Amino acid sequence: MGYMAPRWLPGGNLQTIWPALYARRFEGSAPAYRRERWTTPDGDFIDVDFIDAALPGPQPLLVLFHGLEGSSRSHYAEAFAAFAAAQGMAFAVPHFRGCSGELNLAPRAYHSGDYEEIGWILQRMREQHAQRGGGPVLAAGVSLGGNALLRWACEAGDTARASVNAVASVSAPLDLAAGGAAIGRGFNRLVYTRMFLATMKPKALAKLAQFPGLFDRERLLAARDLYAFDDVFTAPLHGFRNTDDYWARGSSKPHLRAIRVPTLVVNARNDPFIPAQSLPGPGEVGPHVTLWQPAHGGHVGFPLGPPPGHVQGMPERVGGWLAGFAPSTAAQARAK
Fold it and tell me: How far apart are CA 111 and CA 88, in angstroms?
């Protein structure tokens, strides 16, 4: 599963920013999604975007959990959608609360350790896919969604196999404190932190308008990094004492030995958000976990090809690894 970045895109920042803005995500037309609205156990809702399998029979379902402020239209989501379509798989992107274009109803949002939400979504995915005559369920998570997915796999242990055949994370901040410190410094603070807060603060203020008194408005407006934002908004709304408590309890790295389902953990060692020294080594994970830590790739970048490049390689490699645990009827037909 080797990866070599194009020579015209040197460095982790270029390998992060260019793919998100300019690289090709798919060939031909953009993925056409079908949306379902699901009522959550606490009376809220999430929106799930689907692409149905092109072929009849028990095809696999690939479920993708997006990253911070992502959606089914994120560059990596559309690239994964193209991979799934090429394999004849069904594809789904469940939006974390508030990320589908409409404010959710409850006095909460989403967070990096939201494993109970992941578990409920995957259980419903498995049941619904089975009712429709589908086959195995595979799950991938990107960045925040990747850590939340791994955190669920850690908590679920042996029961994870009841929902999924295999899972994969891409560019997940496995150590939230290390990632939070990295994104709060220098260039990262000026570019990435500012970008995230530009959408997160308005959503938080809309939530405050829904629930007056939910948090301190002035403290939120004064937040200049994710640590401060999480301290006033994310942590207290989701049952954590403060940012330090949230980042400690939400991190998947300390629990990776507990995973009992086939799992691929992908992190580029030049990811500007995630210090290479914070990544787990082989001795820090269990036998069901495969680590892939290429030297290059940036944060959810992994571009390939001449300018403008494309981002189809990472979904093909990660999706291909997952598909190895759930061969589709299309793959079986090609093998005959």
Answer: 32
